[in-house]
Design brief:
6 strands, alpha/beta, 207 residues, two-stranded parallel ribbon, globular, four-stranded parallel sheet
Amino acid sequence: RARMLSYHLHKFGWEVTIVCRDDSPIYLDTPKETMDFSLTSVEVIKVAEWPKTMWNLLGIRSQGWRMWLPILLTGHRVIRKKKITLVFITTAHRSLYCIGAVWNKLTGVPYIIDFHDPMGNVRSGYSTYVRTRKSVLSQTLSHLMDSFSINQAAGFVSVSEAYLEDIVRLNSARNDSLMETIPFAGDPLDLKLARAQPQDLELTAHW
């Protein structure tokens, strides 16, 4: 998502810096002729998780928690150094959303949250995870952090209107005008790159 958003934002005069985990697949070698501009002009700052030993001992495998402090510190440094004017948070790890609120408190820079998944058991009460002590604690912390991040966010983007409706249910004070639904879509560039691969590829789509 960050890759595709980057070259579209460039059309409107934005300069983009991406902060991500060190093994995130951000593709920078796309041929110039297939894009509006070369992604080599986008700075990508990859961050390693730490302290690994502590997380391993605690048995915590969620990348959201393992990357929380590294992303927080690195992002804060980037915001200060590059004079960032807007933060766009796109991740499936809800625990990382509230980092935007911390950055906002420290720097005053607004942030937008891109929700990949529904907020959870807001409507149906249906559980999508095995209830263990660790998972219950993680979900409880995530819900508390959700409230904190939603209260401070400048806007929201989601692939489904239902996800945004869940946000309103969680915090009725949110302004609907700050919300936008952008459904999943395929970019012609991705199809062109896929066809260029030597191996046979199969795509199965569900909606």
